[in-house]
Design a protein that fits this description.
The complex is a heterodimer of chains A (214) and B (219).
Chain A (H helix, E strand, L loop, with lengths): L3 E11 L2 E12 L3 E6 L5 H8 L7 E7 L10 E4 L11 H12 L10 H7 L15 H14 L4 E5 L7 H16 L3 E5 L10 E5 L6 E5 L1
Parallel strand pairs in A: 3-7, 3-8, 5-6, 6-7
Antiparallel strand pairs in A: 1-2, 1-4, 8-9
Chain B lengths: L1 H12 L5 H19 L3 H22 L3 H8 L2 H7 L4 H30 L4 H28 L7 H27 L6 H29 L2
Helix pairs in contact in B: 1-6, 2-3, 2-6, 3-6, 3-7, 3-8, 6-7, 6-9, 7-8, 7-9, 8-9
Classes of the chains: A alpha/beta (214), B mainly alpha (219).
Chain lengths: 214, 219
């Protein structure tokens, strides 16, 4: 059964401040959503609310067709921080996340070596993560999306610190995930370079949003 | 879960892990006591179990503040919070790994330090046994403090202050059981069983409370 993500009249606060409200959308399997907006307009808050790391102030988020209707358990969240240990090697980090996270029903993660190759970083799997450059670290953090299967990817500024070729490679990863019937929600300043992706424009404290074709 | 246990063990023995810091601190504390107290062998052997316990308690508290803070700083905590695996279980496994890396070495080092304090074999054995049973409780209690202070940049001292009052019963029953093994009239078993009960109690309460604190601290 294909997955389907419902966001109904969502609102969130940070402390007393209302960050956004009245966000409603439906994402079908194979659809992507790019969240854009100025700094501080609530992109990260939106993603953290979707991933269950911040409480919902009003409305609700629902996932159909995955193993559980809890979106957090069926999603990958790639935040500003890479969730990798500097002291462990790249392979050790990825093997750990693969074992710890497991696969959601409906798909399988790639073997660690294949994921490292897919990110274009073959041959450095034995290095401690802390030795890598910022861009390489970011790419390795993306490998986590591949080693454990999750139908929904929630990506916060995924391409920060990446060069142009890595941007294209990442666009390829996202396209591949969408073709397999996944859902991608990405907050970004740069266009991802993927056709047919919808856009959610956050406008800051006014809490109004506009959805438009990309 | 085994993956998490092995990862935390690996991290604690790699550079910056700090597993040995606790043992070194424990040795330092106990080794300076004879110099401070003086060469009164009877006095040293009488206060030995208590000194070993106090040293182990303080050494246990040393690395606790990093238990969840390191995970939070690199974003791993976010991923752990989102998993289907109950957070309580992840916290319990992290506590067990932390104890294996930093509590167990204290237990193993205690007989050597017991010799410094002129303790006899029975006293050394009893202290080692009570430390083995009692130090996990300190880790479980400390996990709660570490979870509460996870978002604070200088939470280390705060964790110790939060945790110490709760760890006092462990110290009292640990030391009294160790003394009971040496001094005849006092029975060994009652305080020892209470010590086991305290450890089992906090093995349940600690991870539950720590998981609740971690959930509410995410921002």
């Amino acid at each position: 059964m294909p997955v389907k993500l419902h966001v109904e009249d969502l609102a969130a606060r940070r402390g007393e401040d209302l960050i956004f409200q009245h966000i409603s959308l439906v994402l079908q399997a194979g659809e992507g959503l790019v969240v854009t907006g100025a700094n501080g307009s609530g992109k990260s808050t939106f993603l953290r609310v979707l991933s269950g790391l911040l409480p919902v102030d009003a409305g609700r988020v629902r996932l159909e067709g995955a193993g559980s209707d809890n979106l957090a358990e069926s999603s990958h969240y790639l935040g500003h921080r890479n969730a990798m240990k500097r002291e462990l090697t790249v392979s050790e980090n990825l093997v750990f996340w693969q074992d710890f996270m497991g696969d959601s029903p409906g798909g399988r993660g790639l073997p660690v070596e294949v994921a490292i190759d897919a990110l274009g970083l073959s041959g450095i799997g034995h290095l401690p993560f802390g030795y890598l450059s910022a861009g390489q670290q970011r790419r390795m953090a993306m490998a986590r999306l591949l080693v454990a299967f999750r139908p929904v990817w929630l990506l916060d500024e995924p391409t920060a610190a990446l060069d142009a070729s890595a941007d294209r490679m990442f666009a390829g990863l996202v396209r591949g995930h969408l073709e397999q019937g996944g859902i991608v929600v990405a907050a970004t300043h740069q266009p991802l370079g993927i056709d047919g992706v919808r856009e959610l424009r956050m406008t800051g404290f006014a809490g109004v949003f506009a959805e438009a074709g990309y | 879960m085994i993956a998490l246990f092995l990862r935390d063990l690996k991290l604690s023995v790699r550079a910056g892990g700090g597993a040995l810091i606790g043992v070194l601190f424990f040795m330092t504390v106990v080794a300076v006591i004879p110099f401070g107290v003086g060469p009164d062998l009877n006095l040293l052997s009488r206060i030995g179990p208590a000194i070993l316990w106090i040293g182990a308690l303080l050494a246990c508290l040393l690395g606790l503040d990093r238990l969840f803070q390191a995970e939070r700083e690199d974003g791993s905590l976010d991923v752990m919070l989102m998993q289907e695996t109950p957070l309580v279980l992840s916290v319990l496994v992290k506590c067990l790994a932390h104890w294996t890396a930093s509590g167990l070495p204290l237990v193993i080092a205690s007989p050597l330090l017991g010799l410094f304090m002129n303790m006899n074999e029975v006293a050394i054995g009893a202290t080692m046994l009570t430390l083995l049973v009692g130090t996990p409780a300190i880790t479980f209690i400390g996990a709660v403090g570490a979870a509460v202070a996870v978002a604070l940049p200088r939470g280390g001292l705060l964790v110790s202050i939060l945790v110490l009052p709760l760890a006092i019963p462990v110290l009292i029953f640990g030391v009294s059981a160790a003394y009971a093994a040496v001094e005849d009239p006092a029975p060994f078993l009652p305080p020892f069983l209470i010590l086991i009960a305290i450890t089992l109690f906090f093995a349940v309460i600690g991870p539950l409370a720590a998981a609740a604190a971690l959930r509410s601290s995410s921002d």
